[in-house]
Every structure is written in structure tokens, then in C-alpha cells.
Amino acid sequence: MRMLITYGNMFLLQLVSVFLVLALFSCSPWTVWSSSYCNGMNFKEVRPHSVSITEFGAVGDGVTLNTKAFQNAIFYLNSFADKGGAKLFVPAGRWLTGSFDLISHLTLWLDNDAVILGSTNSEDWPLVEPLPSYGRGRELPGERHKSLIYGRNLTDVVITGNNGTVDGQGSIWWDKFRNKTLDYTRPHLVELMNSTGVLISNVTFLNSPFWTIHPVYCSHVRIHNVTVIAPHGSPNTDGINPDSSDNVCIEDCYISTGDDLISIKSGWDGYGIAFGRPSRNINIRGLIGKTTSAGIAIGSEMSGGVSEVHAEDIYIFDSHTAIRIKTSPGRGGYVRNVYVSNVILANVDIAIRFTGLYGEHPDENYDPAALPVIERITIKDVIGEKVKRAGLIQGIKDDTFVDICLSNITLNVTSKLPWNCSYVKGYSALVSPEACEPLNERISPDHCSDCCYLPNQITSLVNQNWGAWV
Predict the structure, then answer these.
(1) Is 381 in contact with 351 (CB distance < 8 Å)?
(2) Angle, CA of 183, 189 and 195, to the nearest 5°
(3) φ, ψ dihedrals at 385, nearest 5°
(4) Is 436 helix (H, G, I), strand (E, B) or coil?
(5) In the record, which residues are listed under signal peptide (predicted)?
(6) For residue 47, what are the CA distances in angstroms to 20, 109, 202?
(7) In this structure, are strands 155-161 and 196-201 parallel, antiparallel, or unpaired?
(8) Radius of gyration of the chain (CA)
(9) For residue 28, is pLDDT > 50?
(10) Residues 387-410: pLDDT tens digits?
């Protein structure tokens, strides 16, 4: 009987130990922010004034160029900006157009069978100045092509509908990239700059020439129930790239592209450092997708800093990498307070990959001594089948990535060397296959400040005598 009680106590102690380890990671401060903030984001989708693109001479035959019709319609609707805003309705049809600019207090509404087609003539995508946080076009020095749907210095702008489509017809741009015949950096499909109060929802985006949805220098952005698709061989067709933006919610999206599904950025080397606008408070929930690159990436352009990133309920399949951080000497900046949880992987080459020697530089003026700070990265509650490698986590010599925390991760790994780690330091618990030696120190309550915050009741419990408590 005494032996049974002893075994019972030991079992309960083990349960308590597991409970405490898991509780350590159930208290992320960003969980509270993400749930309350995203649910509280309100946008004005109903407008008192509405017009159809057909009222301005547009023809939805997929052949007639409708750039002027879009421009004239939006110019007309600008007169209603101070009267509650307006809606531009795009009915069923194939509406060929070049680049056009949105305005504040506007809803661009696409009907179910509406398709906005990007022109295959590069002259219909005019040039704009490079982003100051990049100092040049991302691919080539100098100017860059304007996105198909573009806006800057806007307030209260909505792109939505009944699951209509925006098709960038990007293959001509992909061919130019492969053949090295680009004159300027390729355009995005949607780019909004210096804007506040942005909603993009219930729309399918296809075949972007370059990054698909690019909010840059924006605040209070919600991207919800969006589908992004491009062929897996298409170069740099990232899905959604928040860039030097804050308070961004990306929810319930399906993305299948030729590059990162979501990539968080904040400027490039010295230009990003000087511009100094970080990406922060980025919330990702309900992402499903596949890619030849990464599911969720940070960088490599992160020189303005990235922090308070919360991603949960993620399903990545048939992909190269699930979670990735990319940086290099010369980037400067930081990535900190990243919290990823509830991830399912299927047929993924690498589950977790941090790379400290990644990417080129905009010019020869970068400072190689500008080293990035990578710290407080927590990844928990991950399961995976048909995963080749658990992790490649490689920091930078004399610039160790610290406080990398892994918990409750179970991966069915096919490689005989599941982990490869260098210049990193952190903690792990309940990780299978067992984490690499630099991350093998067991997580304990003493490491709470390194990984996340303990709630008061857990802190109180830890301070008690475990045996007495049992």
C-alpha cells in the first residue's frame, strides 16, 4: 500500500512537472493582445454611395483596357470621401487594367465572378520611387513598377467582395526575371503605403508579378479570409508581406505560392536602420498553405526591427520550411518576442530554420558590423509527419541567437541528423526528437523571463513545496 502511494505521488509529481512546463508557455502576453485587438478591429464596409465600374465605360471582355475607367470612377468617388465614403462595384466579367490608385474612405467590391486582370504590357504599370527603407528597388537600383492596386497616405480603405479575383497575370514578369531582362523591380499585386485602417477580405489573388499583398508603413491592417495562389515555380511571389507596419491581423487565409506564404519585413540594411520603423504587433491565425520556401518567415529585410509576433493555428504541408528567420551581418535591427503555437506539419523538409547568413545587400555601403539581435523566440505545440529535419538553427559567430525556447514539439523525422545548431542558446522541454545541445537545457520557472511570462497563480504554485502540494 505504501509503495502504491509512493508511485502515485511520483506520478502526480510528473504530471505537475509537465503541467508547469506547459503552463510556462500558455501565458504569452501577446495572446491577450492578439485576441482582443483583432476581434475589436471594426471597418466600415457599408458605404452610403455606390457606383459600378460599367458606369464609366468599362468593358469586361478581358481584352479592352479599362485603366481610365478605374481611374475616372475613383476620381469621381473622391467627392464622397467626407460624406461617409463610397463603394466601387466590380460586377461579373474580366476587367483588364493597368495600375490604379485607391482613395480614403473607399470600398473596392468584387462580385463573385468578377476578375480584375493585370495588363501584360509593362507600360501599364508606371514607375514609382523606391521605398526609403530599402534605398532602391528590391531587385534593381532605382525606381520600381507600381502595384496593380496601389494607395498611399490613406485612411479607411477596404478591398473585399463576394470572393472575386485579382489576377496579376504575372508570367511575363517571371520570364523577364528568369531571363534577366528586367529594367526595374517587378510590381506587387497590392501595395498600400503610409495608410491606416485597411481591410482586405473575401478576395482571391492570383499570379502576382512579385510579392502579392504588401502593406508598408501601415497601421491597423486586417487581412481576413483571403486566398493567394501562384505556381510553385514562380519567383518571389510571396503571399502577404507586412513591412514596417504595426497592429496587423492576418486570419483564416489559404496561401500557395512560389515563395514565403507570409514574410514579415522592416527595411534593408542601413536604409532600414535609418528609417527606423519596425514591424510590431503582428498576429497570424488560421493559416493553411504550401510553398517551395517558408510558411511563416521573418526577414531577411528586418533592419528596422520586428517584435511582438504571435502566430497560432497553422497548417503547413508539402513545403520546404515551416517557420523561418532570415538575417545576416549588415542587417542590424532585431527580431524578438516571437510566439508560435499550435502548428501542424505534413511533408515538410525542415520544421524550424533560422539562418544568420542569408541574402544580399542593397549596395556596398552597408556596415558589416551592424549585427542583428535575435532573442526570445518561442515555438510550442507542434506536431509533424513526414518531416525530413526538425531544425537548422544557425546564428552568427560573435552574435549568438539567444533565448530560443521550444516546447511540446513532436516530429516524425526521417533524417538521421534531425537537428543542426550553431551560435544559438536556449531551452527546450518535451521535444522529440530531442533538441540539439545548445537548446537542450530544460525549461524551468527560472527561465520564464527568457521565454514568456508566468501568470500569478502559476508563479505562486512554483514557489510552493511540490511534495506538500501533492
Answers:
(1) no
(2) 110
(3) -115, 145
(4) coil
(5) 1-34
(6) 51, 11, 17
(7) parallel
(8) 24
(9) no
(10) 999 999 999 999 999 999 999 999
421 vs 395: CA distance, rounded Å: 8
Given a contact cutoff of 8 angstroms between Cβ atoms, the answer to whether 269 and 298 are in contact is no
> Which is higher by pLDDT, 466 or 247?
247
* Residue 463: per-residue pLDDT: 35
Count of CA atoms in the C-beta half-sphere (13 A) of 443: 32
- How many residues are there in the chain? 470
Taking the whole predicted model, whether its pTM rises above 0.85 is answered as yes
Using alpha carbons, select from 225, 228, 220, 233 the residue that is nearest to residue 263: 228
| Sign of the alpha-carbon dihedral angle for 164, 168, 169, 170 | negative
Pairing type for strands 114-118 and 93-97 reads parallel
Within 207-245, strands assigned E span: 213-216, 219-224, 227-229
Catalytic, out of 246, 259, 269, 403:
259
Q: What is the pLDDT of residues 275-319, one digit of tens each?
A: 999 999 999 999 999 999 999 999 999 999 999 999 999 999 999
Residue 167 is a catalytic residue: no
Distance CA 97, CA 59 (A): 10
Q: Do 212 and 192 touch, CB atoms closer than 8 A? A: no
Q: Is residue 7 very low, low, confident or very high in pLDDT (cuts 50, 70, 90)?
A: very low
Partner residues linked to 350 by β-bridges: 321, 389
**Residue the block writes with cell 504587433:** 281
Q: How far apart are the first and last CA of the chain?
A: 17
